[in-house]
Amino acid sequence: MNNLILVRHGQSIWNKERRFTGWVDVALTEKGELEAKRAGELIKNLNIKFDAYFTSTLKRAANSLDIILKVLNEQNAKVNKTSKLNERNYGNLTSLNKDEIIKKYGNDQVKIWRRSYDIRPPNMDAKHPYKNKIGSSSASESLKDTCERVLPYYKEKIEPLISIKKNVLIVFHGNSCRALLMKIFNISKEKITEFEIPTGNPLKIKFDENLKVVDCRYLDSKRSK
Predict the structure, then answer these.
(1) Catalytic residue numbers?
(2) Rounded to an integer, what distance in angstroms lies between the CA atom of residue 109 and that of residue 91?
(3) Distance (Å, rounded) from C-alpha 89 to C-alpha 114?
């Protein structure tokens, strides 16, 4: 079968408040929980038996997967949790409102910080209120930095399963998902700036025996981009 389904977690509290979240461990909103439930229903309709489940160590992703597993009646399934799949660390932007940062620095600069491939946001300084509350080993991450932890993990732990025709579900974050899509679809670092990953909409990717993509679609076509 070798299906890979990727889901960005449901809406979080800071998604709703338009705050840079990164490694801060915030909860889902009620809408986010409903998005995860809907994702579970869409996945259940595929009638696929999954062989492995992966998520990050952040609860907005892990809780989204828990909700999906409940819909799939797989609450006792083994889940692989790793910080390698965490969201990128937004450094000194962490916890700040995106609209306020745009007013301060301009839309072009904020787009560079949010969407560019290899430019990091300003490092988290020593006085930042979340300095000692996040587990990231870096002071800030670009998408390139995120790729450098996501892709080796995928190659070591997930790709071998797909190569032996296993079905895999990953629930993670906007930027860790963008990092993986760069590899799977050979997306350039220029083109990836245009990618916005919707919350709670499963992306189903099917591979052939040579790990080439033969089919790809969002399960909720009304919300697909």
Answers:
(1) 9, 87
(2) 15
(3) 11
The beta strand positions in 25-124, using DSSP E, are: 52-55, 79-81
Going by the DSSP 8-state scheme, the letter that residue 168 receives in this structure is E
Q: Which residues pair with 169 in a beta bridge?
A: 5, 53
Paired strand residues for 3: 206
Q: Tokens standing for 222?
A: 């009304």
Whole-number Å distance between alpha carbons of 122 and 107: 16
Q: What's the distance, Cα to Cα, between the start and end of the chain in Å?
A: 25
157 contact partners, CB below 8 Å, separation of at least 6: 54, 80, 82
Two tokens, residue 31 = 């809408």
CB 38 within 8 A of CB 220: yes
Q: Beta strands of the chain (E only): which ranges?
A: 3-8, 52-55, 79-81, 168-172, 203-207, 213-218
pLDDT digits (tens, 9 = 90+) for 15-53: 999 999 999 999 999 999 999 999 999 999 999 999 999
pLDDT tens readout for residues 155-190 = 999 999 999 999 999 999 999 999 999 999 999 999
- The DSSP bridge pattern shows strands 79-81 and 52-55 to be parallel
> What pLDDT score does 1 carry?
66
Q: Residue 112 in contact with residue 119, Cβ under 8 Å? A: yes
Q: Contact, 177 vs 15, CB < 8 A?
A: no
Contact status, residue 161 vs residue 52, Cβ threshold 8 Å: yes
